[in-house]
């Protein structure tokens, strides 16, 4: 009997060792392969760097192979993300002439979420020309693709997409934190870009908009914030108080004086708001 | 021909700046982080430094403050090239001794023009 247990223990130990060894070999092969591909890609990009610069100089470029063309497209997309002005314009023109819209659309219509995400990345430099394809990706069936679409709209500073992002937040397609980051990145200069949105049905979206008005210091949103002080929801009132404190406009003094806090949290927020206004007066 | 040190952790940005400045006839050196940037500035005093803010090891503001605390770099012009758009960040950069501030995304042509202007 002891012998049987010994054999079983030995067999289990050997099997465990084999699984561990196989996993180690797999991980090692994976790492070597990845490193090899990364190295190959880096050398390919280095080789294509003059072609990219020639595009930026408006001289265009004709890559030798389809693979080179694909890599050059991705390099041009990345360069376009970093640039603005004449360099950005010439890169966008080359990307359009190279059929980037068709390629990106085909990828965004793919069944694979990874390919749809790649389509979004490729389309990004063209978002300022037409942001509709990116906006439509806010309704993608994969939450990661939706988040990427939202982040991309933020990176593209697509201000007209704010309403769509807030819509997506209301219907819980996009988390409020992601929407907040994207909108902050767009740096809207006027509160009406946020406040034009119908927010009454979705308290979490209303709260997000109120917080953004404060974070972005959109002083023209002050009157709307003061109106929110009479909202039936306490979280909206607290958010409005905090934003009024951040805006610190002297004209808010009477609205704050007339506000009667209904909870300790509101009392604290009210004190902070008064301090904000007083600080601005001093 | 001026010696320009570009310190940025994004190789795409460095390549764009490098290309434009070389095209303008400058001698360009690229470093990927604040620590390496400082070492390069010590090894050879640059005429102009194009400095990213958010970088690994030491950030651009720290590098700027360190260089401005040393009289050796009094003649070195520093351009902050960053995605930080807030007014108080711009104020902090100038208070730390930056000579110019360029926001990302940027125009490499405009950056080259600003380098020329600072060298005059």
Structure description:
The complex is a heterodimer of chains A (about 280) and B (about 120). In chain A, about 70% of the residues lie in helices and about 0% in strands. Chain A is an all-alpha fold. The longest helix of chain A is centred in the first third of the chain and has 55 residues, at about 1-55. Chain B is of the alpha/beta class and about 120 residues long. Chain B has a 5-stranded parallel beta sheet, sandwiched between helices. The mean pLDDT of chain B is about 90. In chain B, helix 1 crosses helix 5 and helix 2 packs parallel to helix 3 (about 60-70). Classes of the chains: A mainly alpha (about 280), B alpha/beta (about 120). The interface of A and B includes residues 56, 82, 87 and 88 of A.
Short description:
Chain A is mostly helical and 282 residues long.
Features:
heterodimer; A: 282 residues; mainly alpha; 15 helices; B: 120 residues; alpha/beta; five-stranded parallel sheet; 5 helices; 5 strands
Helix-strand layout with pairing:
The complex is a heterodimer of chains A (282) and B (120).
Chain A: H1 2-56, H2 66-82, H3 85-97, H4 100-108, H5 113-123, H6 132-136, H7 143-155, H8 162-170, H9 176-186, H10 192-195, H11 203-215, H12 222-228, H13 234-247, H14 253-257, H15 264-281
Helix pairs in contact in A: 1-2, 2-3, 4-5, 5-7, 7-9, 9-11, 11-13, 12-13, 13-15
Chain B: E1 3-7, H1 11-23, E2 27-31, H2 34-43, E3 48-51, H3 60-68, E4 77-82, H4 87-95, E5 100-103, H5 108-119
Parallel strand pairs in B: 1-2, 1-3, 3-4, 4-5
Please compute the radius of gyration of chain A using only Cα atoms: 27 Å
Distance between the amino and carboxyl termini of chain B: 12 Å
Biggest sheet strand order of chain B reads: 2-1-3-4-5
**Helix percentage of chain B:** 40-55%
């Amino acid at each position: 009997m002891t012998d049987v247990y010994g054999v079983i223990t030995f067999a289990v130990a050997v099997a465990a060792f084999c699984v561990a060894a196989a996993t180690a070999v797999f991980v090692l092969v994976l790492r070597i392969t990845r490193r090899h591909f990364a190295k190959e890609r880096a050398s390919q990009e280095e080789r294509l760097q003059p072609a990219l610069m020639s595009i930026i100089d408006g001289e265009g470029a004709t890559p030798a192979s389809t693979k080179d063309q694909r890599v050059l497209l991705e390099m041009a997309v990345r360069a376009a993300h970093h640039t603005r002005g004449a360099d950005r314009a010439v890169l966008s023109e080359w990307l359009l002439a190279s059929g980037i819209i068709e390629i990106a659309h085909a990828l965004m219509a793919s069944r694979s979420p990874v390919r749809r995400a790649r389509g979004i990345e490729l389309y990004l430099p063209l978002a300022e020309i037409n942001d509709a394809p990116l906006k439509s990706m806010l309704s993608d069936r994969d939450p990661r693709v939706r988040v990427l679409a939202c982040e991309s709209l933020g990176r593209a500073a697509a201000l007209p997409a704010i309403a769509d992002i807030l819509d997506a937040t209301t219907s819980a397609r996009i988390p409020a934190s992601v929407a907040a980051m994207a909108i902050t990145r767009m740096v809207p200069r006027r509160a009406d870009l946020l406040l034009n949105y119908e927010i009454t049905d979705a308290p979490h979206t209303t709260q997000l908009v109120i917080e953004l008005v404060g974070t972005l210091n959109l002083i023209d949103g002050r009157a709307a914030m003061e109106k929110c002080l009479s909202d039936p929801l306490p979280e909206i009132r607290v958010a409005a108080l905090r934003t009024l404190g951040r805006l610190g406009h002297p004209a808010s003094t009477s609205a704050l004086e007339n506000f009667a806090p209904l909870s300790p949290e509101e009392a604290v927020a009210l004190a902070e708001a008064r301090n904000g206004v007083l600080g601005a007066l001093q | 021909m001026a010696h320009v040190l570009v310190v940025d952790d994004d190789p795409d940005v460095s390549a764009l700046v490098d290309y434009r400045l070389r095209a303008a006839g400058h001698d360009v050196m690229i470093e990927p982080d604040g620590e390496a940037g400082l070492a390069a500035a010590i090894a050879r005093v640059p005429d102009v430094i194009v400095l990213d803010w958010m970088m690994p090891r030491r950030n651009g503001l720290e590098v700027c403050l360190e260089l401005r605390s040393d009289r050796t770099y009094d003649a070195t012009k520093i351009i902050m090239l960053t995605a930080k758009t807030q007014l108080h960040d711009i104020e902090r950069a100038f208070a730390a001794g930056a000579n110019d501030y360029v926001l990302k995304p940027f125009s490499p042509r405009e950056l080259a023009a600003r380098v020329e202007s600072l060298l005059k």
